[in-house]
Amino acid sequence: MEIPSDFVKKSTWNKVLNYIALSDELPPYLLVDKDVMKEKVDVIGKNIKNSRVFYAVKANPDIEVLRFLNSLGTGFEIASEGELQILASLGVEPDRIITSNPVKTFKFLEYAADYGVNYFAYDSVVEVEKLAKYAPKSNVYVRLSVPNEGSEWPLSKKFGVELDTASELLVYAKEKGLNPVGITFHVGSQCNNVYNWNTAVDKARDLWDSAEQNGIRLKMLNIGGGYPIRYTKNVVDIETIEKKVNKAIYQKFPNDIDIFIEPGRAVVGDAGIFVCTVIGKAVRGDENWLYIDVGVFNGLMESVGGIKYTYIVGSRNEPKTWTISGPSCDSFDVIDKEVELPEPEIGNRILILSSGAYTISYASEFNGFSIPKTILI
Ligand SMILES: *Cc1c(COP(=O)(O)O)cnc(C)c1O
Q1: What does UniProt list as catalytic (predicted)?
Q2: Fewest beta carbons less than 10 Å away: which of 72, 180, 192, 332?
Q3: Do 161 and 176 meet the contact criterion of CB atoms below 8 Å apart?
Q4: Cβ(229)–Cβ(263) under 8 Å?
């Protein structure tokens, strides 16, 4: 197969073809290119002064992925004891771990505090009380609600509070003996709208002032995740986003501010390629259906929320328009519609690009279809 799309690097493509040719492993599996992850880690944060990067583990918590990222020295953002257990097994130091889930379980809080994690997000009165009890004196940062327009995977409704509440919560944390150090927000995942960060930074500055008026000197701004990747369309590149964000931050904030960044999708998404098999074809009404062995339940859950992937088949037949479906018996298990692809044969490989993030981490064994293995190349 020659290189099929400019959305995959030649070096990645060669590694993928080599792996398929030489390995005994049976598909489906997810190949993850270490060089792509390294490139991403090298670029993220580079254009934001005083920044530290904490990889959002939920995007892909595979132990080999985490081991590799750990070897590159990144920090980690976690939300649960399961995520912390994997990091602990790799010996990740607590000062490289933060937790930005604003509502945490008791068990996780206890474990995290005991492990020595010392950065916790919150956005409610009861969370302050939980933190004061389970992680007394810890560093805490409040989650501000910010616009998510232009993000393909918005997160804004579930978490975050408005300015006045956020300001009160910072004061309350201090009253409870915690150490309010900063502000966080999330512009939404797969965010294509650079202005979201600008609006968010402006809003954070207002909160910063309001905290100062209440005698609280903050020192950290956590700009969350949201950097987009190329699924089927070009997106704004990380460098462009970061230069704009950097400018917005340093026009308004003190020079010695600490910036945290929590990318998930951008670190692992483009590094992953699913290797799947065509297991069925049918014509139903006026639709051509293509059935493959990875679907909504065992890896491609985000397709239901509107993420569209790039598919590659080796066939040189005329392109047709397909409805692509997973292997389970559930009618919810439809990955994509109106996909133009040359007609493959049954048993042919079908590759899915940019599928390293929010795929395996979402997967279940529903209907007995196993979760594809993750293999680093
Ligand atoms: C999921 C999540 C991230 C990562 O978001 P991406 O869009 O994958 O970069 C970062 N921070 C928090 C708090 C999250 O919940």
Answers
A1: 329 (proton donor)
A2: 332
A3: no
A4: no
Ligand 1 atom with the smallest distance to the CA of 265 is: 8
Kindly report, residue by residue over 280-315, the tens digit of the pLDDT: 999 999 999 999 999 999 999 999 999 999 999 989
Ligand 1 closest atom vs CA 155: 15
pTM for this entry: 0.96
Q: How confident is the model at residue 153 (pLDDT cuts 50, 70, 90)?
A: confident
Over the stretch 72-125, which tens digit does the pLDDT of each residue have?
999 999 999 999 999 999 999 999 999 999 999 999 999 999 999 999 999 999
Q: By C-alpha distance, which of 221, 121, 205, 99 is closest to 169?
A: 121
Contact 8, 353 (CB under 8 A): yes
What's the Cα-to-Cα distance from 193 to each of 165, 197, 208, 265, 294, rounded to whole Å?
26, 8, 24, 16, 31
Nearest to 84 by CA among 55, 115, 54, 62: 115
In the reported structure, the alpha carbon of residue 316 is separated from the centroid of ligand 1 by a whole-number distance in angstroms of: 39
What lines the ligand 1 site, CB under 6 Å?
56, 58-59, 77, 100, 186, 189, 224-227, 262-266
Going from the C-alpha of 334 to that of each of 137, 269, 313, 325, the distances in angstroms are 48, 21, 18, 4
CA–CA gap between residue 26 and residue 8 (Å, rounded): 22
Q: Which of 21, 126, 283, 329 is catalytic?
A: 329
- Tell me, what's the pLDDT at 1? 62
Report the first-to-last Cα separation within the chain, whole angstroms: 18
Cα 98 to Cα 122: distance, rounded to the nearest angstrom: 12
Residue 191 catalytic?
no
Beta-carbon contacts of residue 286 (< 8 Å; ≥ 6 apart): none
Element (DSSP H or E) covering residue 141: strand 139-143
